[in-house]
Amino acid sequence: MRPMVPERPLVSVVLETDSVHPYDDISLADCLEALGGQDYPRDRFEVIAVNGGKVPDLGALVTAAFPTAVVLDCPGGTKFEQKNLGMQAVTGEIVAFVDGDCAPGPGWLSRIVEELATAPPDVAGVQGITVLSPGWCSPELAALFYGVRRGPDGSSSRLVTDNCAFRQPVARRFTFEHPSFSTVVDTLFLHRLRRAGYRMLLCEDLRMAHSFPQSARALAAWFFARAFGVGYYMVLTRRLEPELPGAALVRRAGGLGWPLIALAKAWRDVRQVWDNRRRVGARFLVALPLAAVYEAALFLGGVGALVGLRRPRWS
């Protein structure tokens, strides 16, 4: 008799669609095609797509590619609200996240399963590398916006939620808090994981292609909205969550400690670009002036939160 081959684990792929934009050079159809081209058995993964209202006939588009897919409605939901809703419907042993403006490589699901199959119990999940599609300074911007960080123990110390996966019990136990925020929600999620004794594996060859704006106008809006918003939500989240590093500096003395946090953030970002330059093919000297503009906009975003400007929203 042939030895029985263990059945491969079921993976639930949560697909949020708030990240879909008219300027995307990776469409939702491209994303679905990439999922359909996985080398992982089709009957061992499920697709859970969340409809926020941005994609016409989303249900028909998704079920044409995956007839058994689950499509959930989350009208006007942010990407984190959509991810939270998707997590409630998963049935797989592993929960993988992909955004609607991204396309995973054909071995994406197989690599996730391989990484988690032998990982120790304290591993919550696995973090991959996101690369922007070709465009003006896209490698440098990928290193700045989506670059990962490796902690002292070799685990990932940054969560990029368009290319990561979790063991289901962890996904069920934790949730994205303040999901109406456009960013920093992932930072808080990882902070909660680490405080609970978990860590994230960093997988260098778990790759995700991310859409990149091709017009100058769309690129400028994409860049400055994200830079300003990161600073804004860094301050706002620290006002609400006193356990986050640096929270005391924005909660006391009217936020006068914000420049210190912004300086520390700038240092980490420059280190991040340096550490990720080879991963994404970035030119460090080209990235430095981009980083300087980014940090200036980020600082202004934090000031905006301190003086009570309206919350920015982007996807």
Written account of the structure:
With 315 residues, the protein is α/β, with parallel strands linked by helices. It has eleven helices and eight strands. The chain has helices at residues 28-36, 58-65, 79-88, 108-117, 138-145, 168-173, 185-195, 216-240, 247-251, 258-280, 284-306, and strands at 11-16, 45-51, 70-73, 94-99, 102-104, 123-132, 163-167, 199-210. It has an eight-stranded mixed sheet with strand order 3-2-1-4-7-6-8-5, sandwiched between helices. Helix 5 crosses helix 11 (284-306), helix 8 crosses helix 11 (284-306) and helix 10 (258-280) packs antiparallel against helix 11 (284-306).
Say what oligomer this is. single chain
Task: Give the overall average pLDDT.
Answer: 95
Q: Report the radius of gyration as a whole number of Å.
A: 19 Å
User: Treating each run of at least 4 consecutive H or I residues as one helix, how many helices?
Assistant: 11
Strand order of the largest sheet: 3-2-1-4-7-6-8-5
Fraction of residues in helices?
40-55%
Derived from helix and strand composition plus strand pairing, the structural class reads alpha/beta
**Alpha-carbon distance between the termini?**
54 Å
Low-confidence parts: none
Strand content: 15-25%
Shape: globular
Described by strand count, sense and barrel closure, the largest sheet is: 8 strands, mixed
Strand and helix order: EHEHEHEEHEHEHHEHHHH
Count the beta strands: 8
